[in-house]
């Protein structure tokens, strides 16, 4: 499957029916998701691999990984209503994904999720609650050797400091995350946020 084909397929997926501001529930834009996944594919981190999508929401990254030939894909999210939509989305594209409800803030990821080859994720940026992305980073590093994650632009110094002696940032890809007016505090119909896709390689 080519990049453009993946992007077009992912654009068919439904988003959050009732998004929650506290969880920063914004569907990952299909072009950004496709770019992350295709880069991971080219690096040998998707096809034939065990992939986990942390904070999968309605399944954008998880389903994309399945379409690109992952051996197995698990999507994990705190919101069971979102997982219902994710399951419907997977059926729509005939993608085989296992969806698991879990609160990553509780820790113990390895015991509940198991290990995998690659984590893909679009964690909360911490706009509503400071450091909301940290449990996702911790979980990713506990279950996988390689992680691809979306962060606010300029996050590399924080990520490098937070993951020091655990992982290293091996690549950065710039991108844009258009956020449509979703919640009452939004003042624009669309606000484009500059983001970075970071590849983390575990060192311990």
Automatic annotation (TrEMBL):
Record GO biological process: methylation
Protein name: Methyltransferase-like protein 5
Domain Methyltransferase small residue range list: 33-131
Highest taxon of source: Archaea
Family: Belongs to the methyltransferase superfamily. PrmA family.
Natural source organism: Methanoregula formicica (strain DSM 22288 / NBRC 105244 / SMSP)
Gene Ontology MF annotations: nucleic acid binding; S-adenosylmethionine-dependent methyltransferase activity
PANTHER family (UniProt xref): RRNA N6-ADENOSINE-METHYLTRANSFERASE METTL5
Transmembrane residue ranges: none
Keywords recorded for this protein, A-Z: Methyltransferase, Transferase
